[in-house]
Amino acid sequence: MSTGFDWVAFVEYSALGLLSGGLLALVALGFVLIYKGTGVINFAMGEFMMLGAYFFYTASVMWKLPTVVALPLTLAAVALVAALIERTLLRPLSGQPVISVLMATIGLASALHGGVDVLWGGKNYEMPALLPRKPLTPGDILIPGQLFWSFVLAAFVIAAFTLYFRFSKTGIAMRAAASDPMTAYVLGIDVRRTQALTWMFAGVVGAVAGIVVASMTSLSPALGSAALGVLAVIILGGLDSIAGAIVAGLIIGLIESLTAAYLGGKVRDIVPYATVLIILLIRPYGLFGTRQIERL
Amino acid sequence: MQMAPPLLQTAGIHLGFGGIKALSGVSLAALSGQITAVIGPNGAGKTSLFNTISGFYKPQQGQVTFEGRDITGQGPAKRAAMGLARTFQNVALFRGMSVLDNIKLGGHTRLHANPLSALWYLGPARREETALRREIERDVIDFLEIDHVRNQSVASLPYGLQKRVELARALAMRPKVLMLDEPVAGMNREETEDMARFILDIQEERGITVLLIEHDMGLVMDISNHVVVLNFGMVIGQGTPAEVRHQPDVVRAYLGGTAAAGASA
Amino acid sequence: MRIGDFRASYVHDEALWPTRVQQAWLLALAVALLALPMGVNGYVVGLACMVGIHCIAAAGLNIMTGYTGLISLGHAAFMGVGCYAAAWAAQRGVPTLLTLLWAGSLAALLGVVVGLPSLRIKGLYLAVATLATQFLLVYVFREWDSVTGGVRGVNVPNANILGFELLSDQRMYYLILPVAALMLVGARNLFRTRVGRAFIAIRDKDISAEVLGIDLLQYKLASFALGSFYAGVAGALLGYFYRAMTPEYFTLQLSIFYLAAIIVGGLGSMLGTILGAVFMTLVPEILRAVVALVAQWAPRATEVLSPMQQLVFGLLIMGFLVFEPHGLLEIWRRLRRSFHLWPFRS
User: Which of A148, A232, B52, C200 qualifies as a FRET site for A271, CA 20 to 30 Å off?
Assistant: First the structure.
């Protein structure tokens, strides 16, 4: 006998959705960092996630290093790759029109994706569990432990970065270089170094997200494509807004969870893409993005 | 001294961006067949005024009238079709095309090819292209003396020639009103004199109404029939060049300090 | 060395192949292409058919991206639309040429629908919108069983021209060749008229374009529709060529393949399109040969063919953008220039 709408289930799905939004927001943060810092639209964020996860797998499982060593090693390696990318790909293209750079990052994504697949193979690997598995049970709902702690981790990383940018000397230098490179140069800020740093930070952020996602699900090249769903978050939040990335991440996570629960798992795959199109129809610059005004 | 009715007019334009008021109650008229110059210190709002007339900015108050019709709500593309052409302060040529193709774009609104006729090309599309080419060669390229560079890519041209090509492109529109934003900026004496000659010919031989922004006072005083002075988004003086030169507000705006010190004897 | 090249009329000056020498080369090329199937084995003919199809698809993408500056990551999906549309029509006995037209038109219509909201805003957003469209369309291909046959795919009846069935690759070649030639020349013609010039203007400086009377939205939509039309026709020909198709063919990777083709070949040029299409058709073949060679020592090598392609496409895109942004076309032009000036140095 039907008892009306199952509120407990709804609350549970919503909670799960909001929590998974944390990781989405984290990846979106990496994207926004690069866009705000260098004006580049980086289509390869998903591949940074992949790199992080695969490097960690190599260090932790293949080389059997303890996590305390493997993790910093992985992040350093990804940061190095990111800096290399900035130096060899983005810097030569720095005067070029936006679409050239966009196509370059598309090429980068393809190359990284293929490269990882070639080197490690396309199989599913099992990642070590990094976050506590014990589920939480507030009231009647069940929240998987890993999901909850992934949210906490994401929140922590985002907060740390936000504070860093706001208050540290390097962070302020990076923001200055992002908003007005010319003046920053004149004031003695090494703009090229801050741009390299921006990419390194974004790479690290993506890597962390990738490691967490892979340890929660499994490691395979499909991880790279997962970040395409983050595009919905970025569009909704506005390309250049960190606050937007956070709010949008939570909203998209919520939407994904509810549609998967009530409309079936298959639909879940295309939810981010349908959402993107709807957002572009109604409010292209997102919730918090700034509309570009061209100087005539 | 009966003057022809103004072809282009603005009435009480108020334009603001966020907290900045770019234009406050700007009313001017570009008299038909005459050269009207808009002058004023940097930041006075001259280019904002041009952009409003072009249709890129919508004023919060006021109207823009063309041939007696209110065009304030129309977009830039429609205004072009009516006969309004302009050049930009920073040369806005299409760097991926040759000089000839850039100029041909001026004729865009007068051509009729659609994607289907364009794909086939033979027939109506080719006919109108040939006719356009003939017209441009005769009326614009020869006139502005740029035949020697017609097939070169615009990116390879020196600055002075680029500005001339931009003028050529605007002329190819067969405009009724030609708006020139700093046509001789960055040019040396010789180039400036050439440009002045071209602008005068445009006005006298073709009867085109010219509205120009300029900082070069020599040019302004020499060729304009009418001068409007802007400062801080307001009109602070207008009249013939001789009249405007001595108006105290104008002098103060340019030279600062007391009016008496700068006024002529 | 080029001498005695003068033009006596504007029509002559604006011709595509004005000099006698160019016309002679063109004739020689035409003869060679027509005679191709008689001189080579069936595998090469099949490859030539693919080159033709790639040329058409890449030409469409070049119109959108190379000439008008609109980035599309969904080109493969539009090809899919054309393919399924053609299959649907062909199964109902619609003549082949009409089917091609139908496939192209449906893809173009879809292009307008996708373009309407996305073209009001700037570059990146269009890229994202087309990416979203790519995934959504593939989802539709997989799920809309009744029309597309779902995951199992669809069968395409043999192409036929006025009752003459095109049973072999050779016969398909003689359909694909003229269609590709016509469409490429048509695309080139666009840029001799105000339509094409407007596209380039929108890419280079859309503010200036507006001031010259070009309605931005209208022309962007036209560009997108035309490019999608080309994709649709290419997709239809693909269906006729393979006689069957599944959704797995029209992936994001294919969209990136075509992007690589026009970047490698030369953005904003039809000759570049051809060069890029030929080059990119050969790349998987070369890779296949390399992998087959390496497989003698490392038998697992054949598994990496697909990701290897992804890697190589990505490297090609990045490499050409950084080192030779005008693509193979620029290399070709340098060669030609030194040829024209010979024996003098350029």
Answer: A148
